[in-house]
Amino acid sequence: QVQLVQSGGGLVQPGGSLRLSCTSSGFSLNNLAVGWFRQAPEKEREGVSCIGDHPTAVYHSDSVRGRFRISRAAARNTVYLHMNSLKPEDTAIYYCATSPGAICIRNNGYRRGNNDHWGQGTQVTVSS
What we know:
Helices cover 0% and strands 49% of the residues.
C-alpha cells in the first residue's frame, strides 16, 4: 500500500517541544513536496509548513514561523516538523500530505496535486 505514517504527537506544557514525523511506505518522498496541516476544533484546516523538492522551497505560516521547522531525512523517507516554544493555540490534529504534482511555494505554502496521500493525523495538545 502507498501510505504516509505519522508519529510524534502528544501532550506538552506551554513552551515545550515536539517532533512530528511523516514517513512514506511504498514510494519515496525525496522528489515530492510535503505539507503539514493542522485542524483545531471548530477551526478551518490550516496549512502550517511545507517543503519542496528543492532545498530553497520551504514555507512556514505566520503563526508558526520562528518556532517550527520542517526538514527531510531522505535516507529514512521521512519529513519532520520540529515544534518548539509550543503555545496552547497550537493544539490541533496535525496531518502530513503529499501527491504527485504538489508544490511548496516559498511565500504561499503547499499547493495540492492530484490524488493526495494523507497521514493518519496525530494529536498535539499544549496545556498547562
